[in-house]
């Protein structure tokens, strides 16, 4: 067995998962079918929880250098409201960053940690047995690993071969997106865009460099997705929507995306798992897809690593589906709602006006912001205080910032009583005592993904929860 885990696809999800696994010395190979980075440059927004995760892994500085901070807010259906006051995060902003840049940074990080990445290799088949998975590449090579994770995007080969159903709504409409030069003078473009903003006809032309514009224009119906769009498609559609094609020419790149909404029925079948767009797709409104995939990766990484290293409690790996499937369900639903709110039908416009009014209530605005930014997620870990299952913000501790203590992807006991211990779990869980920590609880146990796995002050109860999440203590497992 050469590898512990093979990951199909080196997009943001696959690259992040590879890095998470390497934190635990798991032997990882990432297979990416493309030889070159994507030529199209969509600017994606990283929301608060993803920025926090980057801080938790020591990646935030280099990501911030390459992105543009924008104020938080206007998250939901692009309704123009500022973010609610006092969002409980040190990173309460939105970071706009080109997707190829984030993919490059995550891949570089994974490789620095020791992941192997092979470009120009597509996964075309696999077979699993009791001990592992045999993965077949497009050149006929066969590789063996203990687990396979499909991070191979919305049209995932792994998901299809696995036979996992992908129910939901198919694409009904597509949007053309590309960068190109424009013949019309800037003033004419600005005047036409302003004029049409008042109507129900939606398109955008945004400056993207000297003489170059990013053009986004919807098209009714779905095309033959096998063929990329042409400049003529853009010209025709611009004329239909804006009454002029603005003299567009010399495209840098042209792409299209659909509005399908689908969710995989299962995230795991035996030794094969799904993450990111391979498990869920939805329209880009609200900018949540990449965030969701990266967060899947951080949820799955330490659990799969625990399984490979042999200390995972029996049901740990299945908590990946149990926790992340409902989160994706919620994202799909909020996206459906946002799409309705973009409709130009009178009823939908009335609901949009009403919601716009409701968002003046701080609680409503906060609820929606916490949903989109994923800081409101509370996993179901059973009965307990409200903190249980939630993420902790980046607290200031006497040892430094909390997230700085999570770079290694280990568990963490934050102890205000100064009398608890992580005992036989010290190889997997760190212990920091700080009686002055600004925490509404005596002690919390954090999982490697930063979610609160236990709240209390009783050592025996803590030991039970350490065993629940981190398996047998060293002494006992060695006997
Ligand atoms: C216009 C637009 C705007 C968006 N804006 C945002 C935003 O602001 N915020 C946000 O969070 N999300 C946004 N998204 C969504 C985001 O781009 C996706 O959710 C994200 O790319 C998913 O990442 P992934 O790694 O799961 O899949 P992908 O990015 O699709 O990566 C999959 C990788 O697998 C490779 N692959 C495929 N098949 C195989 C195979 N058989 N073998 C090996 N490799 C394979 C592919 O080449 C690719 O590199 C937007 C999407 C669109 C279309």
Entry keywords:
alpha+beta, 8-stranded mixed beta sheet, binds flavin-adenine dinucleotide, 24 strands, 479 residues, 4-stranded antiparallel beta sheet
Tell me about this structure.
The protein starts with a strand and ends with a helix. With 479 residues, the chain is α+β, with helices and mostly antiparallel strands. It has helices spanning 12-22, 48-56, 60-66, 99-112, 157-162, 186-197, 231-242, 289-309, 319-342, 346-358, 362-373, 459-470, 474-478, and strands at 3-8, 28-32, 43-46, 68-71, 93-98, 116-119, 123-128, 133-137, 142-150, 168-169, 173-181, 204-207, 212-220, 249-258, 261-263, 268-269, 272-274, 280-281, 396-397, 400-401, 411-415, 429-433, 443-446, 452-456. The strands form six sheets. Strands 1, 2, 6, 7, 8, 9, 16 and 17 form an eight-stranded mixed β-sheet that branches. A four-stranded antiparallel β-sheet has the order 12-13-11-14, with helices on one face. It binds flavin-adenine dinucleotide. Flavin-adenine dinucleotide is lined by residues 8-14, 31-34, 42, 44-45, 99, 122-123, 151-153, 157, 177, 257, 276-277, 284, 287-291, 293.
What would you say about this model in short?
This protein has 13 helices and 24 strands.
Helix count, per DSSP?
Answer: 13
Cα radius of gyration in angstroms: 24 Å
What helical percentage do the residues reach?
25-40%
Biggest sheet overview: 8 strands, mixed
**Based on DSSP secondary structure assignment, what is the total number of beta strands?**
24
Small molecules bound: flavin-adenine dinucleotide
Q: Any idea what the shape is?
A: globular
The percentage of residues in β strands lies in 15-25%
Low-confidence stretches: none
Q: Measure the end-to-end span.
A: 27 Å
Mean pLDDT: 94
């Amino acid at each position: 067995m050469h590898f512990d885990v093979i990951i199909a696809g080196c997009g943001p999800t696959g690259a992040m998962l590879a890095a998470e696994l390497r934190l635990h010395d798991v032997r990882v190979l990432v297979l990416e079918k493309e030889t070159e980075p994507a030529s199209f440059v969509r600017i994606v927004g990283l929301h608060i929880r993803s920025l926090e995760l980057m801080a938790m892994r020591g990646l935030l500085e280099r990501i911030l250098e390459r992105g543009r901070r924008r104020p938080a807010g206007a998250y939901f259906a692009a309704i123009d409201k500022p973010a609610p006051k006092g969002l409980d995060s040190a990173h309460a902003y939105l970071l706009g960053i080109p997707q190829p840049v984030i993919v490059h940074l995550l891949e570089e990080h994974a490789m620095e940690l020791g992941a192997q990445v092979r470009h120009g290799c597509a996964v075309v088949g696999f077979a699993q047995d009791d001990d592992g998975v045999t993965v077949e590449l497009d050149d006929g090579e066969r590789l063996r690993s203990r687990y396979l994770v499909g991070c191979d995007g919305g049209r995932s080969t792994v998901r299809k071969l696995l036979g996992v159903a992908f129910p939901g709504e198919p694409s009904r409409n597509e949007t053309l997106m590309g960068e190109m030069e424009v013949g019309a003078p800037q003033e004419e473009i600005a005047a036409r865009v302003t004029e049409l903003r008042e109507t129900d006809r939606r398109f955008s032309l945004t400056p993207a460099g000297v003489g170059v514009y990013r053009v986004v224009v919807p098209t009714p119906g779905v095309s033959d997705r096998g063929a990329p769009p042409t400049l003529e498609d853009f010209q025709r559609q611009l004329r239909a929507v804006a009454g002029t094609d603005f003299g567009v020419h010399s495209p840098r790149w042209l792409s299209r995306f659909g509005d399908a909404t689908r969710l995989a029925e299962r995230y795991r079948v035996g030794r094969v798992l799904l993450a990111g767009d391979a498990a869920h797709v939805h329209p880009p409104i609200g900018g949540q897809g990449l965030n969701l995939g990266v967060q899947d990766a951080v949820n799955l990484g330490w659990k799969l690593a625990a399984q490979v290293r042999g200390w995972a409690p029996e049901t740990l790996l299945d908590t990946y589906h149990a926790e992340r499937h409902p989160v994706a369900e919620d994202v799909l639903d909020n996206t459906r709602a946002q799409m309705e709110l973009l409709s130009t039908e009178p009823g939908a416009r009335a609901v949009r006006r009403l919601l716009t009014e409701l968002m003046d209530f701080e609680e409503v605005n906060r609820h929606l912001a916490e949903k989109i930014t994923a800081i409101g997620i509370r996993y179901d870990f059973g009965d307990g205080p409200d903190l249980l299952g939630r993420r902790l913000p980046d607290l200031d501790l006497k040892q430094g910032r909390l997230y700085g203590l999570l770079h290694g992807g280990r568990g963490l006991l934050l102890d205000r009583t100064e009398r608890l211990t992580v005992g036989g779990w010290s190889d997997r869980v760190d212990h920091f005592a700080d009686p002055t920590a600004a925490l509404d609880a005596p002690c919390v146990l954090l999982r490697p993904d930063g979610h609160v796995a236990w709240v209390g002050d009783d050592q025996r109860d803590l030991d039970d929860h350490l065993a629940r999440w981190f398996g047998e203590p060293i002494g006992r497992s060695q006997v």
